[in-house]
Amino acid sequence: MPTIHETEVIAPNFKQRLSGVTSTIIQLVPIQRRLGLKIAAVGPGLPESVVRLKFWQLLGLAIPFGGRHQRVWHARRNIELLGGLILKFLLFAPLKLVFTSASQRQHRRFTKWLIRRADAVVATSRKTAAYLEVENQVIMHGIDTHRFCPAENQAESKRVRGFRGDSKLVGCFGRIRHQKGTDLFVDAMIRLLPQHPEWTAVIAGRTTVEHLAFEKDLRERIAAASLTDRILFVGEHRDIEKWYQLLSLYVAPQRWEGFGLTPLEAMACGMPVVASDVGAFSELVVDGRTGVIVERDSLEALTTGIQKYLADPGLLQTHGKNALKHVCENFPLEREAQQLLQLYGRLLEDGRQEKRCA
């Protein structure tokens, strides 16, 4: 466990459940440490692979305990930015506050108030940047292309998980709820699978208590279409990269998304993506080359986009190769880590100059 005195950057994670923000922290912190940054996370729900501080150690940031050593507090949620503000202005901790925004909507008054008090603001896409009323820098998320990569032997990987080696799988991963468009995926599969007997659909993700009725309705629709053995719910998995490696096609049918990592994860595993036009998807998927961008909340558009690939193995293979090349060249996680290192370095240098001038 690191000490607070040897830590330059703190990445707070105040949410217990796994989410896109938590996943970003889990992936970035180890790489940033390998690049030489003295960074540690703090909060629940983090694996042993992530170096982290205990909450009580944050008291060491306060003057006089922590001296005037400048540090960066990189928040990715409102509650975490608020925590940094409390440390900075109530405990007089010498912190530079960074806030990453992935939201693509007009911010509420309280959120705007929080963001204006950050020393630097990062937008995860150009669309997100357009909603910010302060100066910001666009740093798009990257993907760990060592973890998310094509299977060495896809047929064997399928057999290990109970599928035929020559089966073709189309997947939709993420929390099972209306916002994520799981129902659109199911309805598209009900239309398409009877015409394509070689394909099976896989739905991976967690269903929280408030969405159990939603999942029950989906299962009933699937049963009514006699497709229970071809549209499968496989639950939530920590080794989700191994499930991506089984797929030939990925579908991201969300009705709303902040950024959305799943298209990158899928393309890094060598498959094209059919994605709705939400979040950063149109900035991730090259329409007509690495996949297809379709109209949001449109079953007709989604079904047509998927059908193109189910009916054309050559297009599926070509766009899959394009997708892998596109992600490896443009979205390696190391690029995101380096851009953040440069931002932290500027802030820490500014802090040192302020100290010398004081």
Explain the overall architecture:
- With 358 residues, the chain is of the alpha/beta class.
- The chain has two domains: 4-142 and 333-357, Glycogen Phosphorylase B (Rossmann fold), CATH 3.40.50.2000; 154-330, Rossmann fold (3-Layer(aba) Sandwich).
- It contains 13 helices and 13 strands.
- It has helices at residues 20-34, 78-89, 109-116, 126-129, 154-160, 182-192, 212-224, 240-244, 262-268, 281-284, 299-310, 313-330, 333-357; strands spanning 9-12, 39-42, 52-53, 71-75, 95-101, 120-123, 137-138, 168-173, 199-204, 231-235, 249-252, 273-276, 291-294.
- The strands form two sheets. It has a seven-stranded parallel sheet, with helices on both faces. It has a six-stranded parallel sheet with strand order 10-9-8-11-12-13, sandwiched between helices.
- Helix 1 packs across helix 13, helix 6 (182-192) runs parallel beside helix 7 and helix 6 (182-192) packs across helix 11.
- The longest helix is centred in the C-terminal third of the chain and has 25 residues, at 333-357.
- The chain starts with 8 loop residues before the first strand and ends with a helix.
At a glance:
This protein is α/β, with parallel strands linked by helices and 358 residues long. The chain has helices at 20-34, 78-89, 109-116, 126-129, 154-160, 182-192, 212-224, 240-244, 262-268, 281-284, 299-310, 313-330, 333-357, and strands spanning 9-12, 39-42, 52-53, 71-75, 95-101, 120-123, 137-138, 168-173, 199-204, 231-235, 249-252, 273-276, 291-294.
